[in-house]
Amino acid sequence: MNTMYQLYFEELLAEFDQYVLEHPDFAKEIPHNAQIVFVDKRRPDFSHWSVQAFGSLPPNDDHPGRSVVYIEIGELIPRRSRIKSPRLFSSAPAYAYT
After folding, report:
1. 14, 23, 39, 88: which could form a disulfide with 47 (CB 3.0–4.6 Å)?
2. Of 56, 49, 20, which Cα lies nearest the Cα of 35?
3. DSSP for 31-55?
4. Quick check: is 65 in a domain?
């Protein structure tokens, strides 16, 4: 498995989980136990890998006959840091030694 694509897949899975938590109506359209395959039109090489890796169910699948659903990634907005008011030190502050 291509490591770069695997990392991108894992990022998409985490983002998709968060999206579904925030938009539960979207999840209602996904059949129960469906195999989810992520595709991204801006990254056709990833999409090809994803379809090859997840688009067909293995013969010994735990849920025979389940649906395969393709989720097109519209856009990932840049992550934002939650850090507020960082400070830079040239040596460790005293509290780091207690």
Report:
1. 39
2. 56
3. PTTPEEEEE-TT-HHHHHHHHHHHS
4. yes
Strands 35-39 and 68-72: parallel
Alpha-carbon span 97 to 59, nearest angstrom: 58
Across the chain, mean pLDDT equals 90
Q: What is the structure's pLDDT at 1?
A: 56
**Chunked in runs of 10, what are the mean pLDDT values of the chain (98 residues)?**
89 94 93 93 95 85 87 88 89 91
Residue 18 belongs to what domain range? 3-76
Six-digit token pair at 38?
A: 């992520």
**32 close to 87: Cβ distance less than 8 angstroms:** no
| Residues 6 or more apart in contact with residue 58 via CB below 8 angstroms | none
| 83 within domain boundaries | no
